[in-house]
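Name: Vacuolar iron transporter
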Amino acid sequence: MASLDGEKSNENHVEIRVGAIGVERKRKQEIEAKNIDYSERANWVRAAVLGANDGLVSVASLMMGVGAVKENVTAMVLAGFAGLIAGACSMAIGEFVSVYTQYDIEMGEIERERENKVVVVGDDDDDDGVSEEGKREKLPNPFHAAVASALAFSVGAVVPLLSAAFIRNHKIRLGVVVAVASITLVVFGWLGAVLGKTPITKSCLRVLIGGWMAMTLTFGLTKLFAFAEI
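Structure predicted for Vacuolar iron transporter:
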């Protein structure tokens, strides 16, 4: 009987330890999943917010600069449309080159690890970096980054174009461009803060003040240049 009781107690003891390990492992996986989610999210949030904000500020400022010397709505819209196309192409090419450079660097690291037979071992199982195939799947895609940046820029650039396209009065048109751009900048700042888990007020003020400075400088310097030419 003593022997049987001892065996039962040992079995119970083992079951408790296994259960505790399972709970700890599950908790660790949940924490790691959350961390991975935010680290991966940061990349596309940065690119999307940067592209949309750049498109909005660039095209709105360009239209304000043209509006400083030209009252014709067609001139403002054409300038804004040209800025949209040029900016989207520039963003796409810049993002493609940047991400492709990162891709080449990480690919080089994978090749060096394979040649040197470097294997990183985790606590419980094979972690990130053990499988070469897993590493390759996590590499950034330059084409996706380029397309995303171009689309984000275009979305931001369309806002001032649409706000000015159907307003004939010159002063009202300029005011509407500034107002719509300001509201959209606040929305972009809020969206970036919510998705990136950063302070909302600081994010909104940062993009709003930056946009105002860009539009004011472009309008003022263009106006000054026009007066100097006269």
